[in-house]
Design goal:
It contains 14 helices and no strands. It has 272 residues and is mainly α. The chain has two domains: 131 residues, Cyclin A, domain 1 (Orthogonal Bundle), CATH 1.10.472; 130 residues. The longest helix has 33 residues. Belongs to the cyclin family. InterPro entries: Cyclin, Cyclin-like_dom, Cyclin-like_sf, Cyclin_N. One of its GO terms (biological process) is cell division. Keywords: Cell cycle, Cell division, Cyclin.
């Protein structure tokens, strides 16, 4: 999976430089937040998984930064059509058959601010798939979270042995991982700067710090990250391990900052 992630990153950076990627995302920053919010809201309304929403955002960011298509700032409806098409593709790839028994296109039409006819949605779907070169299987942070949890050997936390406690704790941890992953989707710069594997390590550190008493997220990063890296790279280089630990520490701080910002925003909305 790590090799697949590297291949995806190499393919994308072969089409666009980091400078162009950042500048193109900054150019649409004013609408991207609303598009991500629409994808997340549609996912909740249609009972789609967080992985589906993550894939849709990955497709959308890839299209916005690497394609030659130009969308005018006054054409927000076209951006919404793009985000709906990306979610359309993601749910057909990721969602189980029992959640697709009703027309997905019709459901997405009802959950969007603007209702598009199915023909328009399918035309945009074809354009996005062409830009993706039909490579719809993409790596997201949640791909790594269950694997890394097993590697840090924290069965006592994720799979507790006490009767009546194990399932509730597992659900709580996975739910928290989904919420943190959703939080990261809103920050395009974080998704660009950090690999999904780094974001997953940061999420695990934040969760372990939350469910363990008297441990700060920053304190736990070196131990947890080193534990994972030693099991993934048995003969890894010490300098590389230190580099990854620094990146995970930075990612933890950014995610914690985003959490605090969202909490303040929610509290301010309650007082309106």
């Amino acid at each position: 999976m790590l090799a697949r992630e590297r291949a995806e990153n190499d393919e994308m950076w072969g089409r666009v430089t980091r400078e162009d990627y950042n500048s193109r995302l900054r150019a649409v920053q004013h609408v991207r937040y609303r598009l991500v919010e629409g994808i997340v809201r549609s996912g909740i309304m249609n009972d789609f998984s967080v992985v589906t929403a993550s894939l849709a955002v990955r497709y959308m960011d890839y299209f916005l930064t690497t394609s030659g298509y130009q969308i005018g700032n006054d054409s927000f409806w076209l951006y919404q059509l793009l985000s709906a098409a990306c979610l359309f593709i993601a749910c057909k790839f990721e969602e189980p058959a029992n959640n697709l028994r009703n027309s997905v296109g019709t459901r997405l039409q009802l959950s969007n601010d603007i209702s598009f006819d199915l023909a328009s949605l399918k035309k945009m779907e074809a354009i996005v798939l062409r830009e993706l070169k039909w490579k719809v299987s993409r790596i997201t942070p949640l791909c790594f979270v269950p694997i890394f949890f097993r590697l840090v050997d924290c069965k006592g936390l994720v799979w507790p042995q006490r009767d009546g406690f194990d399932i509730d704790m597992r659900i709580a941890i996975l739910r928290e991982a989904e919420l943190l992953t959703t939080t990261v989707l809103y920050d395009a710069s974080a998704l660009c700067y950090f690999e999904s594997s780094v974001i997953a390590k940061a999420i695990i550190c934040i969760l372990l710090a939350k469910f363990c008493d008297d441990i700060g997220s920053d304190e736990i990063v070196p131990t947890v990250t080193m534990n994972i890296l030693k099991k993934v790279y048995a003969d890894g280089d010490a300098d590389y391990f230190s580099y990854v630990i620094r990146r995970v520490t930075e990612c933890v701080r950014i995610i914690e900052g985003m959490k605090a910002t969202l909490k303040q925003y929610a509290e301010s909305m309650e007082h309106l």
